[in-house]
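Lecture notes, part 5. Sequence design as translation. It can be helpful to think of inverse folding as translation between two languages: the language of shapes and the language of residues. The source text, in structure tokens, appears below.
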């Protein structure tokens, strides 16, 4: 029950809604979620547009005043935020390093973190070195295999050319000998 300003109580009125309640309160369909999201973002856009358009000054003097205020307020606000951050950082450090055991505990924590970073870096270097050597071996073996294949192909082609040359030279020598013997026969006759 709501009370009026005069102190008397008024009966509360019940609001009726036209929306149906979902079957289960824990689940929402994707379409329902999309509708709600689009309604929310559209309402936000309308509100932002109204706020922007109503807050814009109408005259040039008022616009200049707004710009001047912003030019002053932005650095002041940034300075205040930086100051707050610095104060909270200093307070945190002061409370963290107040006692000797706390300082030693923090130093050990930093040392562990440094050792972890060093070990991670060394592992990465070893992995990179191993990967480089593996790739180098693979490339070397590929080049050696290609060279062996090319050498074998060259040797086969050379022996084939040599055999062809020997056959051709044998045939040419036989023809030359026949021609010489025919010529000698003609000369002798």
């Amino acid at each position: 029950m709501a009370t009026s300003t005069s102190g008397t109580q008024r009966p509360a009125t019940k609001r009726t809604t036209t929306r149906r309640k979902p079957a289960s309160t824990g689940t929402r369909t994707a379409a329902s979620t999309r509708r709600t999201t689009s309604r929310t973002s559209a309402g936000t856009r309308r509100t932002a547009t109204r706020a922007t358009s109503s807050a814009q000054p109408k005259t040039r003097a008022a616009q200049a005043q707004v710009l001047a205020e912003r030019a002053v307020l932005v650095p002041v606000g940034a300075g205040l935020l930086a100051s707050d951050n610095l104060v909270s950082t200093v307070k945190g450090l002061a409370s963290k390093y107040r006692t000797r055991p706390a300082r030693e505990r923090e130093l050990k924590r930093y040392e562990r973190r440094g050792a972890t970073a060093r070990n991670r870096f060394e592992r990465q270097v070893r992995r990179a070195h191993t990967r480089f050597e593996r790739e180098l071996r693979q490339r070397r073996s590929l080049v050696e295999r290609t060279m062996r294949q090319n050498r074998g192909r060259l040797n086969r082609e050379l022996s084939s050319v040599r055999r062809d040359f020997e056959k051709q030279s044998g045939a040419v020598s036989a023809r030359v000998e026949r021609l010489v013997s025919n010529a000698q026969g003609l000369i002798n006759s």
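The translated text above is only one of many valid answers, since several sequences can fold into similar shapes. Helices lie at 30-55, 60-96, 100-188.
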